[in-house]
Design goal:
The protein is built from six helices and six strands. By secondary structure, it is mainly α. The strands form three sheets. A two-stranded antiparallel sheet has the order 1-2. Strands 3-4 form a two-stranded antiparallel sheet. A hairpin with a 5-residue loop joins strand 5 and strand 6. The chain is globular and about 55 Å long.
Length: 143
């Protein structure tokens, strides 16, 4: 299935949507017309997933309201994908590395487990994207 958004030249919304659908327990490729109410998880688990993966602070009550209103994963993406990009700026590999350095040794050392904890921007294939621009752990180069 091909997922496309208007006004998405950098492919950010598609990657955000795939990750969102995984967080919702719907499978990444379930599309953009799936209602949040069809999610396989309860509102608190969705809230935790959004916070832990995308650093989106949305209450369980707000998720419940969005479900009740029939909001689709595509509509959610249109609203919140720009929020994470605007909020975090242009995170690149250098930023991820700097955030993952440990001063415990005689010189700064990259701690891979800390790199993996960085907020994600979406999914490409089956891999999470950890940068907004440049080379990404998903194997792609993002603009």
């Amino acid at each position: 299935m091909t997922i496309e958004f208007d006004n998405d030249p950098k492919d950010r919304k598609r990657r955000f949507l795939i990750g969102l659908n995984v967080i919702l327990g719907l499978g990444g490729w379930s599309g953009r017309d799936t209602r949040l109410g069809d999610a396989n998880y309860d509102d608190r688990k969705i809230t935790r997933g959004l916070a832990n993966i995308y650093c989106l602070e949305i209450s369980a009550e707000e998720i419940a309201k969005l479900r009740q209103e029939g909001v689709t994963s595509g509509e959610f993406t249109e609203t919140y994908c720009p929020v994470i990009y605007d909020h975090r700026g242009h995170v690149d590999l250098d930023c991820v590395i700097r955030s993952s350095l440990s001063p415990e040794y005689s010189r700064p050392t990259i701690v891979l487990s800390e790199m993996d904890k960085m907020p994600k921007f979406g999914m490409n294939g089956s891999q999470w994207c950890d940068v907004a621009t440049g080379p990404c752990s998903c194997g792609a180069w993002h603009d």
